[in-house]
Amino acid sequence: SQQSTQQVKTVARVKQPGDLAPAFTMAQVAAGKVVYEGYCAVCHGSTLVNGTFGTPLAGAYFDRQWKGKHVGAFYEKSRTMPPAAPKSLTAQQYADVVAYVLERNG
Questions:
Q1: Which of 6, 15, 38, 93 has its CA 20 to 30 A from that of 87?
Q2: Predicted model pTM
């Protein structure tokens, strides 16, 4: 949707060779941590890699799945969560979680 596409642009932009890392604010990261802990950690784990039900959102597995891909694809995937209630968070909450996950992955 138009709104979700615009939201992604506020979180990050495509990284080009020699470019800066995706742009997001530390306020987004902090807000994303709160949302993650409240909605995501139950499946993906408190450390992003120790989840019982969800795939790791950091480390080697995350790199293999997402490195080199457009951040918009990760944002859209995040909107399929949680599995029992996809798109149940606000666009800003999903954007903040994406910022948190990206920041945790360096």
A1: 15
A2: 0.79
